[in-house]
């Protein structure tokens, strides 16, 4: 017959964790807590570096709000994720800011949304931005960025929207943009881009919006444009395209 141990006996002999187990638990908790705060500290440093590159903030949006005395997640334009409490979105659009993009912005490893359109940012885009592998939406439109469109945009494999309109970009459209298999919107209008449209661009079969207007593009439209079965808006005006094919496409757009 099975003998049951009286509850009183169990209570009389409490079980304790060995001392080294308590030490291990506290050490583990300390590492987790330290990692959490060191990570958000990295995000804070990255944003403060960006702030230091702002030379004109007429409405004092960042000057009065981005302060170490408050949580990064409460700063204007900043959104943090609920799970990791890291910066996931940065929206500084239409703030009339003037400055350049700090290379430390690439340290925001959880950033998925970056919108700084309609400001006066200038200079080139730092290659350190390639560290932002979670990026889904980039809007640098209506600024004064210059130089060639970076070929390393192809590193943003999760990218769904890319807007570079109304800047001073020169050179050709990088063929590497064709590697952005999830891209849905691409706006390169109102720049100084030249050359031909690379046929690789039409490998982006998720595209539903494509604007290349007001540039210096030339030649004929690649036949691969037929691969874009989801395309709803195609804007190519004010370039130097030629041939009957272009006229047919233009007619199709405006019907």
Automatic annotation (TrEMBL):
List the Gene Ontology MF annotations in alphabetical order: kinase activity
Q: Ranges for the Leucine-rich repeat-containing N-terminal plant-type domain?
A: 43-80
Keyword terms of this UniProt record? Cell membrane, Kinase, Leucine-rich repeat, Membrane, Receptor, Repeat, Signal, Transferase
Q: Name one GO cellular component term.
A: plasma membrane
Can you tell me which residues the record assigns to a coiled coil? none
InterPro entries for the chain: DNA_repair-toleration, Leu-rich_rpt, LRR_dom_sf, LRR_N_plant-typ
For this protein, the record's Pfam families field holds:
LRR_1, LRRNT_2
Q: Which Gene3D superfamilies match?
A: Ribonuclease Inhibitor
The protein's superkingdom reads Eukaryota
Subcellular location(s) of the protein: Cell membrane
Q: PANTHER family attached here?
A: DNA DAMAGE-REPAIR/TOLERATION PROTEIN DRT100, L DOMAIN-LIKE PROTEIN
Protein name in the entry: Putative LRR receptor-like serine/threonine-protein kinase
């Amino acid at each position: 017959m099975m003998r049951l141990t009286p509850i009183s006996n169990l209570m009389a002999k409490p079980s304790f964790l060995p001392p080294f187990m308590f030490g291990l638990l506290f050490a583990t908790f300390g590492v987790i807590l330290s990692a959490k705060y060191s990570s958000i500290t990295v995000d804070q440093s990255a944003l403060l570096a960006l702030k230091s590159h702002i030379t004109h903030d007429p409405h004092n949006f960042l000057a009065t709000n981005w302060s170490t005395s408050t949580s990064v997640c409460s700063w204007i334009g900043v959104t943090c994720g609920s799970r990791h409490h890291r910066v996931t979105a940065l929206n500084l659009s239409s703030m009339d800011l003037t400055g350049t993009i700090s290379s430390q912005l690439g340290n925001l490893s959880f950033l998925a949304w970056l919108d700084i359109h309609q400001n006066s940012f200038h200079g080139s885009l730092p290659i350190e931005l390639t560290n932002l592998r979670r990026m889904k939406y980039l809007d640098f439109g209506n600024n004064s960025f210059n130089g060639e469109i970076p070929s390393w945009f192809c590193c943003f494999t999760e990218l769904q929207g890319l807007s570079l309109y109304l800047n001073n970009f020169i050179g050709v459209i990088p063929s590497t943009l064709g590697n952005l298999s999830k891209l849905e919107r691409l706006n390169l209008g109102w720049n100084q881009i030249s050359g031909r449209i690379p046929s690789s661009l039409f490998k982006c079969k998720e595209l539903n919006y494509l604007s290349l207007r007001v540039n210096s593009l030339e030649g004929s439209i690649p036949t691969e444009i037929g691969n874009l079965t989801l395309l709803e808006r195609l804007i190519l005006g004010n370039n130097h395209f030629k041939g009957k094919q272009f006229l047919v496409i233009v007619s199709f757009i405006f019907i």
